[in-house]
Amino acid sequence: MSTMPSLFISHGGPNIVIDDTPARHYLEGISGLVPAPKAIVIVSAHFEAQGATVVTDPNPGMIYDFGGFAPELYEMVYPAPGEPKLAGRVLQMLNDAGIPASAVEKRGFDHGTWTPLKLAFPEANIPVVQVSVDPDRDAHWHYALGKALAPLRDEGILLIGSGHITHNLRALFPVMRGSAAPDPALMEKVNAFTLWFADRFAENDRDAILDWKNRAPFPAENHPTDEHLMPIFFAYGAGGDQPRIERAHSSKQYGFFAWDSYLFH
Questions:
Q1: What are the pLDDT tens digits along the chain (265 aa)?
Q2: Domains of the chain, first to last
Q3: 49: closest CA among 104, 10, 93, 127?
């Protein structure tokens, strides 16, 4: 069995499922970029908890954690099963690595999980285990989270970090609603930020990447809060010490909402 890559995706809003965008088409093609997974362990920016929390629910329901979107999005389901046995292993691996982890028995799929998976694996027949981000922890902690689970890749398990390479919703929503035009200055700051990450990943410059808040240009403008970037560090850690890093997708909506995705082989 070949080793599975780990993956970071920018998941967008729930409308990614119905909008005709390059990011949607990329997500629809993910099954062609990775071997068929036996299971998926996903860290979503919309699952926040203190420390590492692992979902053991065998039949996760749906969480419609959004408002003001098309009515059909609130009727969509992603009926993939959970996998309590794998969740138990994840808990043990994290605790063995010195990362205290706890279980939650019932939790549905938030849109950071179900929307990209509905596009990438629409059959919903691959077991999914969810793991939280901790918004009070930094890039180093989330990198260690991924590193602790990296051995699962050798078993055909796909490790996904689902967040966003940039996430300035205060700027996004007025543009989406047509009440404001995109800010050219913000476009330049987004370009600088995303290119900095692309360049640092091309060099596998771990020290700089994990110190992004001090070294990346315009961190606050791209991430007023940190939780949507933390999944990239999970995926990076899950890729191993010297991963081959591929910027698998790069597009922008409205000129400043970036959709970068990375594979860590």
A1: 678 999 999 999 999 999 999 999 999 999 999 999 999 999 999 999 999 999 999 999 999 999 999 999 999 999 999 999 999 999 999 999 999 999 999 999 999 999 999 999 999 999 999 999 999 999 999 999 999 999 999 999 999 999 999 999 888 888 888 889 999 999 999 999 999 999 999 999 999 999 999 999 999 999 999 999 999 999 999 999 999 999 999 999 999 999 999 999 9
A2: 6-167+225-264 (3.40.830.10)
A3: 104
